[in-house]
Amino acid sequence: MSVSQNVAVKAKVNGLFSPKVGMKPRLFFWRVISFFIVFSVWELAGRADISIAFPPFSEVAVAFVEMLFSGEFTAAYADSLPPLLTGLCITIIGGVIIGISIGLVRGAEWFIMPLLIIFQTAPVSALIPMLTYIYGISDTAKVVAIVILGMPLVALNSYKGIQATNPSLLEMSKSFLASRFATIAFVILPSAQKMIFAGLRLGVSGAFIGIVLAELLITPTGIGDLITYNRFIARYDKMFATIVSILAVAGLTLSVMRFFEDWLFPSEKNE
Amino acid sequence: MDDIILKTEAVGVTYQESIVALENVSLSVPAAKLTAILGPSGCGKTTLLKVIAGLIEPSTGIIKVRGKETIGPGPDRALVFQDFALLPWATVLQNVAFGLRAVGVPKKEREKTSLHYIKEVGLSGFEDKYPHQLSGGMRQRTGLARALTVNSDILLMDEPFSAVDEQMRRKLQEDLLELLKIENKTVIFVTHSIEEAVYLADQVVILSGRPGSVADIVYPEIDRLGDIDLIRRQPRYIELVDEIWGSLKSYVE
Ligand SMILES: Nc1ncnc2c1ncn2[C@@H]1O[C@H](COP(=O)(O)OP(=O)(O)OP(=O)(O)O)[C@@H](O)[C@H]1O
Ligand SMILES: [Mg+2]
Known about the structure:
By secondary structure, chain A is an all-alpha fold.
């Protein structure tokens, strides 16, 4: 039983950046191809001289390696990662707890939902410059920006996941005399799991947007500053390399979460 | 007649203060027998079964199990759902064990019991399969096994054979009769098939159209020994089907 489950876990690890751990070779092949196509188009478009602000892929790649070894990335991420991690933790833990609570506690819904919906639909990025007035130029402002952009997504999706529990399963649980706790643990949470993790992925993307916006708009430090500075001195290759690095870090984070999800909930349901 | 295990007394259900689904339903269910609830579509069969299961609180009237009024679900009744109500992320074994897990039976014990009933309903070898890997008949068997594990005296089934094809239906009906020879259960099942009611049940409760109330009760007393096709050609069987159709017809426009 446990052996076959482990195999299942391995077979399902198909995150973007972990091809070695048993990803189906065919899938991996197509993924490489798709990257290859994107990079080729980029290269061609860059060489077509659309604008000097759009360098070809090869130049960006060179700049990327250069920055990796010159310590520019290291210095920038040393500034950005601590608030990012703090913000991510708050986003994930807080978002899931809030979402699940409003899904489970009747009444809480009416209380928190309007707020969440406002946060989700309002152009929140417009609020970010305002954070400066409250928190000044600080890591706190970055953390708040991350949480504002990430947490509503996590909370809303967790809430929707809980709400989407098949009523017939709830009735079944009741008829078998399950306590409220047992129903939550054995029916509601497992059924909401996919939605919750989808929300987490959205929330993580939101968090990355939050940190970059905060660093672009309020506190010129870290990776945001690296983008601004390189644009200012017209080193567009380095600017794009920085953006690519952010995408890579975000992708990596999402893969780690995928792995975590598969480890936490091994399931062959979709195979 | 026999000894009565469950009674509904003047049960009425009104949905949303205006939709009267059931009205004044009183019936007695004999122990260790099969009772069929038959009626036109929308007459409140499912509602009645859920009231008996304790999932819907009746607006009027009471349910008595062994003479004692009961409210809510209880260990004396187990429900087999029409839509199976299986957890899609859980294996057959885990699904069958749900009722035991819900009330805190330790893993080893509940798996042992579950495996026993999985075998009894003919699902051996499928313990580790997921519901989406099973046919409709196998899902129904899983739901049945789950209801059996909790060892209730009364088994409630909502149109247990309606979601499968005709051959599978016959097979499941046979298997249910076989199973009931081993397990000493009282079965109340909902059906819209007159043939099924007459063939399986000891008592057929016919509900009138909405609001449902008891229109008639028939005791088939079919001799079920021997070949099923012969049974279905017995004069008594044909007569009964006609009789029930006669009393149902008036409710179906
Ligand atoms: N939750 C509900 N709220 C309002 N009306 C309901 C509800 N459930 C059932 N009804 C109505 O009550 C009546 C009886 O429903 P019920 O499902 O018990 O009928 P049924 O005999 O099982 O029908 P079917 O043969 O289609 O399964 C129907 O007219 C239905 O529309
Ligand atoms: Mg029904």
